[in-house]
Amino acid sequence: MLKIAYSPVYVHELPEGHRFPMLKYELLVEQLMYEGIITEKHLFEPHPVDERYILETHDAIYWDRLKKLSLDRKEVRRIGFPLSDELVHREMVINQGSIMCAEFAMEYGVAMNIAGGTHHAFADCGEGFCLLNDIAMAANYLINHRGINQVLVVDLDVHQGNGTASIFQGNDKVYTFSMHGAHNFPLRKEMSDLDIGLPDGTTDQPYLDLLAHHLNELLDTQKPEIVFFQSGVDVLHTDKLGRLAMTIQGCKERDRLVLEACHKRGIPVCVSMGGGYSAQIRDIVNAHANTFKLAESIYA
After folding, report:
1. Rounded to the nearest 10 degrees, how much is the dihedral formed by the CA atoms of 90, 94, 99, 100?
2. What is the pTM of this model?
3. pLDDT at site 20
4. Residue 231 burial (10 A CB sphere; 0-12, 13-18, 19+)
5. CA atoms within 13 A on the CB side of 172
């Protein structure tokens, strides 16, 4: 059964001025339920993550200052949100959602966090609307508590997963693969195990050809026990921040490629939604909905 993490705090604990773009979380659930793709039984609401799991990924001093709301103005500006107890609580719920999705993926083959993909959070600081790194935290949870020895991160958000790359540098249990806009945020890239920087204006077929080549090679050589898939839809040509030129069908084929390749090999997949900033919210919701529809059909 497809298990999906969703909580009202994904939207309603955001600062007032940032809520509208994140209505996609609510609208996505409504659309999937309206179309009969999911029912209430597919959804679960995470609780805030235990700080012992936070400290397996994040620096203790950073976490202490974050929860006490004592970051300085430069650090808060780097995050991009005004800091509040509600915002920290939201991030803790998102991270627990990805931990639980990782557990469900090991059981059912696939699980999805409607939020998540906070891949710009470093061990000792936040960045780019990310306070705590849910992919890194869930991966470390499986390694430390479930005996997993090989993880593959497939980050296909248009922005490099710089925080994830930094956290896992030199860690031979986690292989980080990021395929992103070469000239997009972050200006200073970290070093993933494999980085594919794409030129502005990249269209569907070149993107899909590159992805198919590298993904299949990595799945066969790294032999991961689980894949963490960051499925941002900011690769769309309609995206205000993306600078690539993919169609919604191309984005769907990207997700099909990842999910079918993992399913064929019997590799569980834990999916985080990541970014999406098209001018029309329907473009964002439809693109994200395709990811869920594919997962439900492939893993049925």
Report:
1. 100
2. 0.97
3. 63
4. buried
5. 0
Contact, 216 vs 189, CB < 8 A?
A: no
Mean pLDDT per 10-residue run, the chain (300 residues)? 94 75 88 95 97 98 98 97 95 98 98 97 97 98 98 98 98 98 96 98 98 98 98 96 96 98 98 92 95 95
- Please give the residue range of the domain that contains residue 89: 3-298
Looking at residue 54, its pLDDT comes to 98
- What is the count of structural domains for the chain? 1
Q: Which two tokens stand for residue 153?
A: 């991160």
**Residue type present at position 47:** H
Nearest-angstrom CA–CA distance, 34 and 121 = 34
Q: Which neighbouring-strand residues pair with 130?
A: 127
CATH number at residue 289: 3.40.800.20
3-state SS track over the chain? CCEEECCCHHHHCCCHHHCHHHHHHHHHHHHHHHCCCCCHHHEECCCCCCHHHHCCCCCHHHHHHHHCCCCCHHHHHHHCCCCCHHHHHHHHHHHHHHHHHHHHHHHHCEEEECCCCCCCCCCCCCECCECCCHHHHHHHHHHHHCCCCCEEEEECCCCCCHHHHHHCCCCCCEEEEEEEECCCCCCCCCCCCEEEEECCCCCHHHHHHHHHHHHHHHHHHHCCCEEEEECCCCCECCECCCCCCECHHHHHHHHHHHHHHHHHHCCCEEEECCCCCECCHHHHHHHHHHHHHHHHHHCC
The pLDDT value recorded for residue 12 is 82
* CA atoms within a 13 Å half-sphere pointing along the CA-CB vector of 46: 31
Q: Which residues pair with 271 in a beta bridge?
A: 112, 229
Provide the residue type at 222 as one letter: Q
